[in-house]
Amino acid sequence: MAHNALFLVNSVYQLLTAVHLKRTLLQDREADLLLTDVTPALPRLRGRLEETGLFARVILAKGAELQGRCHLNRPAELDACFQNREALLRGALSGELGEYGEIYFANFDVLARLLACRYDHLPCRFYWYEDGFSSYVIDYLRPDRAAANRHPLAGKIAHKVEAALLYQPQLALRGDSIPNLALPKLPRGDGALLEVLDFLFDYRPLRDPTDVLFLEQSFRAENIPGNDLELMERCRAAVGPGRFLVKPHPRNPQNIALERGLSRPWHGDAPWELYLLHGDLEGKTVVTVCSNGALTGRLALDPPSGERVVLLYRLFTGKVLWKENDVLRRYLDRFCREREGGGVFAPGTVYQLEHLLRYLGGGYGEKT
C-alpha cells in the first residue's frame, strides 16, 4: 500500500488544519496538497506553500468550476459528470495525482467524491477532518440529504471514509456511523508552527483598540434571512461605536455593516485562528450568532485562548442550518454548559445581551 498522503483544501481554515496535521500526525510522511479555488484567494498561496517545503507537491484544482457543473442534488448533472469522471478530474487539476494510502478532506463536495471513485478499488483510506460546527452536527451522507448520496458513483465516498477527525470528538451529534477520532490541539506558544503560519498567511498583528468584535457569518451569501444586522446594531449601541467592530465574512458579497455605518473597516487578512494563536484577542469580547471562529479558541487551542465569547443563537430569528438547525442548537447548548463560568455566554433576551455587553465591554453604565 502507498504511504503518501493527499490533503484536499477549500479554505484558509482548512489549510491551517492541513499544515498542522502534516506537522503532527504525518510529520514523517510525504504528502501532496490539492488546493482549490473555492476560496478565490487560496491559489495565490501556492508559491509560499512550496517555499515552506511541507508538501511534496502543491496541485491546483478548479473546485468552483466543478461545483458549478455538478450540483449534488441534480441527478442529471451527477450522471453526466460521473460517467465522464476521469476526464473531468484530469481537466480540473494542474498536475497528475499520485498513489496515496490516505486522503484527508473536509467537505463532501464533488471533488472529494471524484477522488473516492478514482481510489475506490485501491487500499486508500479517507479521513474527514474538521471544518467547523457542521462537522459535529451534519450527517452529510444521509440518503435523503442529497441525490449524490443515492447515486451509484457519487455515493461511493460513504464506503471509503474511515473516521472523522475532530478537536472535540465527544461533542459530535451527527448520528451517523462514522467513528470520531481526536485531532491534536493547536499548541499555543509553538514557535515553529507560528513561523510557518505567519509566513504562509503574511500575518500582521491586530492593532485595532476594539473591545467588542462581532464575527459576521455567511447568511447573505447563502440567502438565509435573519436579524443579524439588528443584533449588530444592539451590540454597537450597548458598548458605543468606538468600542465595536465587525469582522465581515469573506463569502458575503457586500460589507453591509460597513456600508450602514455599524463598523469601521476590518483590516485583518490572516485566518482568525492565527490571531487567536498569537493572543491578539486576549481580554477582548467576541460576539457572533454561532460562528465557529468564536468557538475555536476553546475547541482547538491548547491552552484555550482568553477572549470572552457571547453567542447570540438564542436571539437569532433565522435558521443557520436548514435541516439540522435543532441539532446545532443542542450542540451549542452542550458547548455552553461544558464551559459555564469559563467566559462563554449565551443571553436569552436582548435585555440580557445589552447589560452583558456593557459589563464585558467596559461601558457599563455609559450612555450610548
Largest sheet report: 7 strands, parallel
**Strand percent estimate:** 15-25%
Low-confidence segments:
363-368
Q: How many separate helices? A: 14
Gross geometry: globular
Give helix % range: 25-40%
List keywords for this structure.
seven-stranded parallel sheet; five-stranded parallel sheet; 14 strands; disordered C terminus; about 375 residues; alpha/beta; single chain
Written description of the protein model:
This protein is an alpha/beta fold and 368 residues long. It has 14 helices and 14 strands. A seven-stranded parallel sheet has the order 3-2-1-4-5-6-7, covered by helices on one side. A five-stranded parallel sheet has the order 10-9-11-13-14, with helices on both faces. Strands 8-12 form a two-stranded parallel ribbon. Helix 1 links the parallel strand 1 and strand 2. Helix 9 (228-239) crosses helix 14. 43% of the residues are buried.
